Amino acid sequence: MRTPLAILRASHPEPGAAVTVAATVLALGVGHSAAGAVLVGLTLLASQLAVGWTNDWLDAERDRAVGRTDKPLATGAVSRRAVGIAGLAAAIATPLLGLASGLPAAVTITAALLSALLYNWPLKFTPASVLPYAFSFAALPAFVILALPDAPRPPLWIVAAGGLLGAGAHFANVLPDLDDDERTGVRGLPHLIGPAWSRAAAAGLLFAATVTLVFGPPGRPSWYGIAAVVAAVVVLPAGWYAGRLASSRGARPVAVFRAVLVVALIDVLLLVTSGRVV
Questions:
Q1: Which of 165, 96, 166, 91 is nearest to 131 (CA)?
Q2: What is the per-residue pLDDT across 117-155, written as a single tens digit (0 to 9) for each?
Q3: Cα 127 to Cα 219: distance, rounded to the nearest angstrom
């Protein structure tokens, strides 16, 4: 494997790309120009790369101990030093890019990044593991709106929906690695409540986020908002069931996490088609 590809794989590209695309589409939906939306996307991309690379840099020994062949650092495809330098560069770039959207936006995205890095260490190992996810995801739509000219105040409902989405993503994201985490000393909230309750928490929180986006804005919910709720009702239980089936067969239950990504994109498309939020 070539080193550049290995470094990219160490950044957790699937969720990072989903968050970046979602933020860029959201930026267009709330009224950013094309250039403004690109800037928002680049800022989110830098923050996602920083979080992903830092995560794998910190977890290199743990991933090697449990034989994670999907992790480039664990297989030796890339050096820990290279990933560490890449993570540091991306972390420095995040607030610098954020400043181009104004000071309130820069402060918000920097706080979101710091929260995510605190999850990587030490909060991932504690019952407070869900809090950084909730905070960082709540800060994401706030950053997108604060990056608009004159930095308008983000509506409470969109911040709440982001927090619910993030909390649900945490439970879904950890599910595939519960067994490996247990072997290496990670005892976050999902580990304490177990896989069944974690699947239920992921589905419930994601459904609550969808409902908040549909019924939170002023006025009657649209037909496509109701359709989004119906889609969440279908996709989330399907992901929950597929994840449970995978667990029973000894496979990594990634279906719940992918269901979260699908519902997250549905939520962003719902927000965009609902019109401006400011």
A1: 166
A2: 999 999 999 999 999 999 999 999 999 999 999 999 999
A3: 38
> Is the separation of the CB atoms in 121 and 58 below 8 Å?
yes
**Do 20 and 41 touch, CB atoms closer than 8 A?**
yes
pLDDT value for 275? 59
Q: What are phi and psi of 246, to 5 degrees?
A: -65, -40
Is 125 within 8 Å of 187 (Cβ atoms)?
yes
pLDDT at 86 over 60: yes
Residue-range domains of the chain with CATH: 3-273 (1.10.600)
Cα–Cα distances in angstroms (integers) from residue 172 to residues 116, 183, 270, 271, in the given order: 16, 19, 21, 22
CB 73 within 8 A of CB 61: no
To the question of pTM greater than 0.70 for the whole model, the response is yes
